[in-house]
Design a protein that fits this description.
This protein is α+β, with helices and mostly antiparallel strands. 44% of the residues lie in helices and 11% in strands. Among the domains are: 35 residues, no CATH class; 157 residues, 3-Layer(aba) Sandwich (NADH Oxidase). It contains twelve helices and four strands. Bound molecules: flavin mononucleotide.
Length: 276
C-alpha cells in the first residue's frame, strides 16, 4: 500500500517550495514515477532469470504509432561488449559494471523485409516522420521497461551517448541498413552504498501551459531559483556545482560540444535512412 505522505515527500524533493499539491488518491505507480532517479552505481550481481523477457514484455505493451512497432532492442550481457560500449559512450563506467545493457533501436528494416517478401513498395519508410515515429516508439517502449525495472527494485540509466560514435556502435551490434541504435539503457541492482537521489526539476509553471503557449512571465526568476536548487542537489551528492542554465548552454554550445552527434544526419544516411 502506498504511504499517504510519500507522494508529498517526493514532490518536495522534485520541486522544493514550489511543489504542487496532489490531492488525488495515493497510488503505488505514482509514487514510483515521482521517485524516479537515474542510477549510475550498480552492484555487479546477476539479474534473475526472466528479467530481460519481463522488461521486453513491458516495453512491447507500450503504445505504438499505428501499431507499426518500428523498434527492436538488443540485450547485451557479455563483458567485452559492455566494456566496448562503455568506451564508445565516453567511458561511462556504469555501462561496464551493470550486468545488462539494452540498446534500443529505431528499426525500419522489419517492414522493409515485409515489403520485400510481399513485393510491395514501402516508400513511406524514407520519410523523416517515419524515422521520428520509430524513435518515439522506441522511447515509449524503453520508458515502460524503465518503470518495470523500478517496480522490481532494479536501477536504470539511459545512454544517449550511444549516438556519439554511431558507426562503431552499429559495427559492434551488427545492425543492418534501416536500423539505428537511438539510445541505450544500463540495468542492474542499485549499489546501496551509493544511492541516487531524486533530482529537482523546473517548476511546473515553467513547462505547463493552458490552452495556448505563453512564454512564462517569471521564467528568468524560475530558472535562477532552479539553478540554486540544482546547486543544492549537487552539493548533497558531492558533485561539482554548476548552474543548470550554464550546464545546458555548455552542453549545446557548438558542434564539438555535441560529442560526435552533430553528424547524426550523415550517420543516418549511411545507415540507409533517407529522411526525405
Ligand atoms: C534519452 C536520454 C539519454 C541519456 N543519456 C545519458 C547518458 O549518456 N549518460 C548518463 O549518465 N545519463 C544519461 N541520461 C540520464 C539523464 O542525465 C537524467 O535522466 C537527467 O539528468 C535527470 O536525472 P534523473 O533521471 O535522475 O531524474 C539520459 C537520459 C535520457 C532521457
Amino acid at each position: 500500500m502506498p504511504h499517504p505522505a510519500l507522494a508529498s515527500y517526493l514532490l518536495r524533493a522534485r520541486y522544493g517550495a514550489q511543489a504542487p499539491a496532489i490531492t488525488l488518491a495515493a497510488s503505488q505507480v505514482l509514487d514510483q514515477l515521482l521517485g524516479h532517479r537515474s542510477v549510475r552505481h550498480f552492484l555487479p550481481d546477476a539479474l534473475p532469470a526472466g528479467t530481460i523477457e519481463t522488461l521486453v514484455a513491458a516495453a512491447q505493451s507500450a503504445p505504438s504509432s499505428s501499431n507499426l512497432q518500428t523498434w527492436s532492442v538488443i540485450a547485451v550481457q557479455s563483458q567485452p561488449s559492455r566494456d566496448r560500449l562503455a568506451e564508445l559512450t565516453g567511458n561511462q563506467a556504469h555501462i561496464a559494471r551493470a550486468p545488462l545493457f539494452l540498446a534500443w533501436l529505431a528499426d525500419l528494416s522489419r517492414i522493409a523485409r515485409v515489403a520485400g517478401r510481399a513485393q510491395r513498395s514501402a516508400d513511406g519508410l524514407h520519410y523523416l516522420d517515419t524515422f521520428l515515429m520509430a524513435v518515439i516508439d522506441a522511447a515509449l517502449a524503453a520508458q515502460n521497461a524503465v518503470s518495470a525495472a523500478a517496480s522490481l527494485g532494479l536501477g536504470t540509466v539511459y545512454a544517449g551517448a550511444l549516438r556519439n560514435r554511431p558507426e562503431e556502435v552499429a559495427e559492434l551490434l551488427g545492425t543492418p541498413d534501416g536500423v539505428f541504435p537511438v539510445f541505450g539503457l544500463a540495468v542492474g541492482w542499485p549499489d546501496p552504498v551509493r544511492p541516487a537521489a531524486v533530482k529537482p526539476r523546473l517548476p511546473q509553471q515553467a513547462v505547463l501551459h493552458h490552452e495556448r503557449y505563453q512564454t512564462p512571465a517569471a521564467e528568468a526568476q524560475d530558472i535562477a531559483a532552479y539553478d540554486a536548487a540544482m546547486r543544492g542537489f549537487q552539493a548533497g551528492q558531492q558533485m561539482p556545482q554548476q548552474d543548470w542554465s550554464a550546464q545546458a548552454l555548455d552542453r549545446l554550445r557548438d558542434a564539438p560540444a555535441l560529442k560526435g552527434r552533430a553528424r547524426l544526419v550523415e550517420a543516418l544516411h549511411a545507415a540507409g535512412f533517407s529522411l526525405r
